[in-house]
Sequence to fold (621 residues):
Amino acid sequence: MSSDENIVARIWRYIGAFQHGILRVFGIFVIAFFLIAFIGSLFSSDEFDMADSGVLIFAPEGPIVEEPTTLSPNDAFTASLLGGGPGEEVLLSDVVDGFRQAAEDDDITAIVMNLERFGGGYPAALHQVAHEMEAFREAGKEIIVYGDNFSMSGYFLAAHASEVYLHDMGGASVNGYAVYRTFFRSLLDRLNVTLNVYRVGTFKSALEPYLGDEMSEPAAEANLYVFGDLWDAYQERVEAARGLSDGALQTHADEFPELLVAQGGDTAAVSLNAGLVDHVIGRGAYRNLLEERFGRDSENGGIVASNFFDYVEANREFQLLPADKIVVIRAVGGIVDGNGDGGVIGGDQHAELVRRARLDDNVRAIVLRIDSGGGSAFASELIREELELARLEGKIVIASMAGVAASGGYWIATPAHEIWAEPTTITGSIGIFGFIPTFEDSLAEIGVFEDGVATTEIARQPSMTGGVTEEWDTVLQSSIEAGYERFLSIVAESRDMSRDEVDAVAQGRIWTGQQAFDRGLVDSLGGYDDAIAAAAERAGLEEGDYRVVEFRDEVDPFAQILQMLGQDARLAVFGEGLLGSGWLGDMARDAQDEIETINMMNDPNGVYASCVECNAFRISQ
Fold:
C-alpha cells in the first residue's frame, strides 16, 4: 500500500510540475508579447494625422468616471447575464485633457459631438466638462452637437455647444432631478426575515428600503434640499449657456405636459420653441450639412474628421521628470474591509498605497482623490490612520472630492491639511449604522430551528439562523453609538469644531459641496487641478520642479486578460444580457445594485459609514 501511495504521489507531483511549467511558459509568452507591443509602440513610425478639416469627433460611450471599473470573475458573470458590468466608460481626465489640448492647438477649429451613447455622470464631472467646453469656445472655436434624444445629463453638455441639433422625432429631457428607491419591508415581513438594525443619525437613510415601504420625512427633506441645490446649479449653467431667462427651465419642466399637448405631442417642437435647441433636423440631412461644411470622407464615410480620443492619446507627453513627486491616490467606489476586487476601495489595499507614499522620501505631498459613498467604518479608519501618519511625518495631505465623497468617503478625507470639493460634489452623510438580517422566523415556517448551550450570556454570537439576543442588541447598539461619537470627534478635531457643532451638520445628512463649504466641512471649492496646485504650494514646490504620479493597486495581468476576453464573450453570447435593455432588464439591474450593496457589507464589526442613496445622483436620464 505504501508503495502504491508513493507512486500516486509521484504521478501527481509530475503532473503538477508539468502544469506549472506550462503556466510559466505561457506567462513568459504573454509578458514577451506585451513587451514587444509596448516597445513597438514607442518606436512606431505611425503618427496621428490630424484631419485637414481641423475637426474632432467627440462621441463618448458610457458614463464619465474617475478611473476604469473592473469586476471580479463572479461579478462579471452575473453582470453579463443581466446586461450590466463596466461596459464602455469615459475617463474624466481624458475628456478634460482633450478639450484643453484642442483649445490651444491651432490646427483644431471645431469639435462635433454625438451624445447618443453617453451614459451621464455625477454633476461635479458634468460641470467640469462644461467648463472646458466654454474655454474651448472662448478660444474662438466652435462645438456642434447632435442628438436623436438628449438625456438630462447629455443635454447639460449639449447646452454649452455653439449649435445644438435635434432629430425631428426627438426631444431634450430637462425634467429636473429625482431619487426613488425600491422598498422591501413588506416583502421581508412576508418572508419572516428579522432585520436587526443599529444606527445613529436622523438622516441616515441607507437602510430605509428594508425598514419601511416609503421614504421617511427626514430623508425626503434632506434629499430634496440637496437635489434642489443641484437643480439650481443645473438651471443656472444651462440658462446662461443658452441665453435663457432666469427660471426658464423650471417653467419648461413644470408646464411640459401642457406644452406637449399644445404641440400635438411633438417633443422636438417643444424643445425648439423653448430655446433648448437651435435646429430640428433628420439624421440624413444633418450628415449632409456636416459633409458640405467639413468635407466628405470618401474612404471611411462620414465627414473629414479625427477621433477625439485618438487625438488625446497621440498628444500624451512622455518626458523626463523631476524627482520630487506629488502622489495621487484615487479612492473610487465602495469601501470594503481587506483587499477588494476592482471597483471598490479595499481598506488594506489603499492603506498600503498611502504607506508606500509615506515611506517614499521623494514624495512631498499626497492628494487623495475621492469618489466614494463610503462603506466599512473599520476599513475607512485604516486608510485615515495611514493618512494621519503621513501628515505627522511631514507629508502634505490634500483631499480632492469628485462626484461624491460622503460618509466613509468623508471619513478618509479628515486627515487632510485642506479638503477641496466641487460646488456640486455630494458629501457629508456623517453617520453610522449596523445591519444584520436573520432568518430564524423564516426557517421556523419550514421546521428548521437552532439550539445549543453557552457558558455566558454573550457567548452565543448573532446568528443568521438563530437571530440576535437581547444582550447582543445592547452590545451592537452601543458599538454603533461609540462609532458615531468617534466619527464626530475625528471630524471635530480635523475641522477645529466642537462635537456639538459637528453633530448639528451630521446625523447622516448629505450636503452639496457648496453647502458643506458654507458649514465648514470643506476648506475650498475647486477641482482636481486646484487640489494639485494647493498641494504644490503647501509643499513649497514651483511648477516644473515636481511630477504628479498616481499610485494604483497592482492588477494581475492574467486577470485583466481574462476580463477582456470575458467581456468580448459576454457581448457575443448575451449581447445586452438575457434581460435586454427594456424595463424588465432595468428592474433586474436595480435589484442587483441593491444586492451588491449588501454583499459589500463586510466590516468585521458590522459597522458602516455609507451613503447608499448617493449613487442616485449619478444619472443618465
Remarks:
- The chain has 23 helices and 22 strands.
- Confidence is low (pLDDT under 50) at residues 1-5, 80-85, 561-585.
- The first strand starts at residue 55 and ends at 58.
- The CA atoms of residues 397 and 416 lie 5 Å apart.
